[in-house]
Write the structure tokens for this entry.
Amino acid sequence: MKNLQVRDFAEAKDKSDTILLDVRTPEEFAEGHLENAINIDFYKDDFAEELNKLDKSKPYAIYCRSGHRSGLTAKKMEEIGFKSTVNLDGGILQWIKEGMKVIK
């Protein structure tokens, strides 16, 4: 798992086979998210089951509000066999602070 700054994360998420994963709550997601992100709530009881349904061979770019939940998620995903995960350092708060685009 790599922690990436905003510009590097933007580059990583735009690679054609990378899956963008938002691990915030549905309410947080609805307030604004990155384009093409899929939302799996970190706090849901079936979170681990939902992760296990994903394709472990694909690269994942993961973010949350501040980078904490996504960092834990990226680490967990690698432990269960995902080949490539990157975490947005500072989360969507840092993304917005640096003037990057959010979908509402």
Strands lie at 2-4, 19-22, 38-39, 59-63, 84-88. The chain has a mean pLDDT of 97. The first helix runs from residue 6 to 13.
